[in-house]
């Protein structure tokens, strides 16, 4: 029997969480948010004291839990709750609260929607549970339903709720006014589904951000979080230390780095690869935070390998914030990385899984102030997936740092442009774009997206000092000229070989490996388990001067942000921007004089599925110009002109793709309605970019073994991700290349769980990855012949 407001429960189980405790936990989170998101107060679209209204929403959001049947559920007593929603019983208290009507309207919506999407709330709960207003008494189905107003009057502990609100939070409440909740929800849904809710509506961002903030508070308050990390000035101490060490040696940061640390607002930085762009970004960030205060930081990179490396770098004491609690990362293969990361701690499997989930949870929430991510973690919020309001709230006053933004396909670049327009126009986001090889036509797209900005380029002197590569064009195919590479390996040279396809990289690696002391292959067709191992071996080899990785063979995966330094590169032909990035892994620290970079002129037929033949032809022509004018020495200050010669503008096909996605998404975003979510899951959203995960059939026994042990992360790490077009190609080649299979396990409670997965009938080798040309002959060990 609930006789005091201090007895009203908010949660079941132990420890006992009363409604007051839960409200206080959520209010604590709100106080953290107010400190972490100061730019909310400066948004033009917010017309009232935001944080004060958020506090009111928190106090009112769960008052409906004062329903006696809901309390019976929480205390484990017999009940007649009948699957209703407690948030609907919070609404009548808002009606009895004296507040400006425009703010009460927001409170009703965000509190009604703080658990269930409005579509589901209406169809699954309101329509099925309650009689309609003015219902037909002869309708037997209606007669079976509850009367919401009577339910409220009969069961909600109004007196105790009033005492709670008035004594603990000093708000005076009038008598509640219970109304059927259907009208509130359906009126909003009708507007949302007919396109009448638009981003330019006066209360659009008030509703969106209030809802996002309330969800953060409820989520983190329920987790009883007692702090949220912020970046403080001392976190940038590593920059001062680095600068002092340079000055002791009569050096200093480069001029473009110093200039980046003095800029206020958006910045586009162009500087050579290996010229300290990461330090430039941190200097810029330090300045913005000094001027504009807190805001979450998103360091955005295109590839998983570079994200893993940047996460480790920014979390380190020497080159980053030095606090693992303040740096997180998000990408589709995060579980694989964390599984290996925790391997060193020798946890038991169940403990390791808990640690992984705990860390992933922190990375996903606003707890972590700096996240290294792919752009898709931000883009998903523009597609209206569940939780997009929280994602957009997290962007308010944030700092976007894009590295190598040129590396995306036209469709993704179009989405990034829409994101930049939205974030800078509505959410006070500041943007830094760093590049070594950005074509001018792409730069114009960014310029129009971010508005005012400052441009910084590395100095002429620095560019001159970066003369470190000499182009040597080679006739024929790289694969037909391996003898030259073998000779370099026999001399002890550190050699990087870059191919355009996985198949070619595997073949070249197999041929060259016997000539190298240590070697690594890196491409996209490894499973998570082996890819992490190869990245780790490469990293350790780079740090071991006595026994380095002498041969690295890779694909495009090695082009961006990998801090590796080789003596010479042999590469298949590719567009100039890709090749310049590949060159950046050679003589990176500029202590080897001029190093040769060999580019083979002949493409494999399959290369043209990846790169435009016209762009490769223009790239070879540009390199011939370099050879003619500068004896092949790559003059970094001339690269922009050559890049623009190769990419004078969008090609027709790419422009069509860009325009279609840009205009579609821009129109879609303008009508994105808070509280109404897309039916697509987050996993489905990522599939459009990430491709399909398949299990090599030879690993099936291990896969089933892991599933049987409930080790889902380890099982998932055995899958290989392949692109959708590759999946379609292999599926067309042979009917039996893929099989859709299922494995059923039982939970401890005896409930069945069905796990579906694709298998691929191709051989898999831990050193080489998935071998697309070799069929696997696999015999099911459970079948007795």
The count of helical stretches stands at 33
Strand order of the largest sheet: 3-4-2-5-6-1-7
- Compute the separation of the termini in Å: 66 Å
Helix content: 40-55%
Class derived from helix and strand content: alpha/beta
Q: How many whole angstroms does the radius of gyration measure?
A: 29 Å
Shape from CA axes? globular
**Strand percentage:** 5-15%
State the oligomer: single chain
Low-confidence stretches: none
Number of strands: 19
The averaged pLDDT comes out at: 90
Largest sheet: 7 strands, parallel
Organism: Xanthocytophaga agilis
GO molecular function: ATP binding; hydrolase activity; metal ion binding; nuclease activity; nucleic acid binding; RNA helicase activity
Pfam families: Cas3-like_C_2, DEAD
Protein name: CRISPR-associated helicase Cas3
Characteristics of this structure?
alpha/beta, globular, 785 residues, six-stranded parallel beta sheet
Could you please describe the fold and organization of this structure?
The chain is α/β, with parallel strands linked by helices. The protein contains 33 helices and 19 strands. The strands form four sheets. Strands 3-4-2-5-6-1-7 form a seven-stranded parallel sheet, sandwiched between helices. Strands 8-13-12-9-11-10 form a six-stranded parallel sheet, sandwiched between helices. A hairpin with a 3-residue loop joins strand 18 and strand 19. Helix 27 runs antiparallel to helix 28. The longest helix is centred in the first third of the chain and has 19 residues, at 204-222. It is globular and about 90 Å long. The mean pLDDT is 90. This is CRISPR-associated helicase Cas3. It comes from Xanthocytophaga agilis. GO terms for molecular function: ATP binding; hydrolase activity; metal ion binding; nuclease activity; nucleic acid binding; RNA helicase activity.
